[in-house]
Amino acid sequence: MGSHISPYGTDSTYLDGQLLVAMPGMMDERFARAVIFICAHSSEGAMGIILNRPAANVTMPDLLVQLEILPEVERIRLPQKVETMQVLVGGPVETSRGFVLHSPDFHLAQSTLPIDDSICLTATIDILRAIAAGRGPENAVLALGYAGWGAGQLETEMQANGWLNCPADAELVFNTAADLRYEMALRRIGIEPAMLSMEAGHA
């Protein structure tokens, strides 16, 4: 994991590259049982991608055709990897915009944000063009939209026991089925999912 040093010379408390895992007491139904990968976190706020909400009835080939990156007749020529690439509902903000979390073997100058040693974020149409042409990253998931917090908002929610956090890793982000990510993330924190009662406010 890349270590983040704050400007004050002490280890940063910011959560870039961490997973947020919603506790059962999460009051906001948009984030119930959510696992969120935090892409950026600073004193100004935070943004992240929900990893365990597959987009209903939307596939990667559908999107490439809709965005006119790919003519309909070319669909059948797409690599198998592109056919099966996960499309997620990444959060309630900018839901028509695509955000790609991907392995660091792909980089666009001025566009790609390395988050840690194994995961980057690119949110331009160019990465979708590269994926369609078979020149994209080895591992990638596409999210439509993101989750955002204003200054201090995420910290307040964490103090209220809304979220737990743990380091993310490429295995969970890229190679785990979306519906298994919540249980997997809880186990990373050391919690057996079956032990969480619905009114648990304190882990």
From TrEMBL:
InterPro entries: AlgH-like
Pfam families per record: DUF179
Positions of transmembrane segments: none
Family: Belongs to the UPF0301 (AlgH) family.
Protein name (database record): UPF0301 protein JAO75_02625
